[in-house]
Amino acid sequence: MSGGVDSAVAAARAVEAGHDVTGVHLALSSNPQTFRSGARGCCTLEDSRDARRAADVIGIPFYIWDMAERFREDVVEDFVAEYAAGRTPNPCLRCNEKIKFAAVLDRAVALGFDAVVTGHHARLADGVLRRSVDPGKDQSYVLAVLNSAQLSRAIFPLGDITKEEVRAEAARRGLSVADKPDSHDICFIADGDTRGFLNSRLGNTPGDIVDADSGEVVGTHTGSHQYTVGQRHGLGLNRPAPDGRPRYVLSITPVDNRVTVGPREALDVDVVHGERPVWLGAEPDSMPLECQVQLRAHGECHPATLTWDADRLTARLHRPAKGVAAGQAMVVYRPDADGDVVLASATIDHTETRRPSLV
User: Fold this and answer.
1) Which CATH number fits domain 204-262: 2.30.30.280, 3.40.630.30, 3.40.50.2300, 1.10.10.10?
2) Of 42, 43, 92, 95, which is the active-site residue?
3) Would the N or C end of the chain have less CB density within 10 A of its end CB?
């Protein structure tokens, strides 16, 4: 129970379904601030108190579990290391994979519980994970890192209702969090200043910003970790493009601390390679597989042809995608009459652009 409306309603629904429920709030910061900054961040003292009040209303036991050290090692340090390596991570995926459905699930099972219930907006039935009925709040993308064993001990009670219906249900149940703002951005960067957060840990490492076409240095930076593929604003270039069009970040190479920029069309990607694949069900009997792939949280889905070997997924997109960043997840869906089914995920390793066979 995070202290938000989704987890509170999920807990209430689990009780109503006949389960023996205990509420758990995760203390993920060793020095939590007292109050949230608007809708940014989470896991504050205020949030823990909101969670406790919700548990009291629902009528369930409530505990706070200290996961700060595990969260720092598995999520925060991974986040910093990925940016230092020129990649753009999604910490919500790591948190689900390493904390909520690993550390928390392991402790829960050891204590005699059968499953972990969360307020994620996704549907799960008979081991099959599907998108939520609310496409604007669907969180199946950040749950696609879970394996079949983890999904077998997961319950997502909110996948069949919209966020508006969640709030209305919370109000009917007398939960004070009914109108509480959603948390946004990265939970451990409460002020939303990701660049400042990374600078405080990685320091200033000056380098060049280079134009992809001419090879000329068109600007400088104080750390390649401050950039991500597809970024347009905040580049600080001191030389405009010859045609006057804006430039975008095309690649980041930490080895020589170089950021390469170029025109928007150079962001087109035709082939996406993913490492460390996770199949949420049985591995497919045959390849290639026609599917849909989502390449960033809340991003659009792309029709693709998927191939797979023991340690890699490769998606050949039917139409180019723009600004695909290494470190994000490639999540594979199968369109279905009852809602898209999540088949697999992998961490994007590298991409290919303008392959002649696809033109």
Assistant:
1) 2.30.30.280
2) 95
3) C
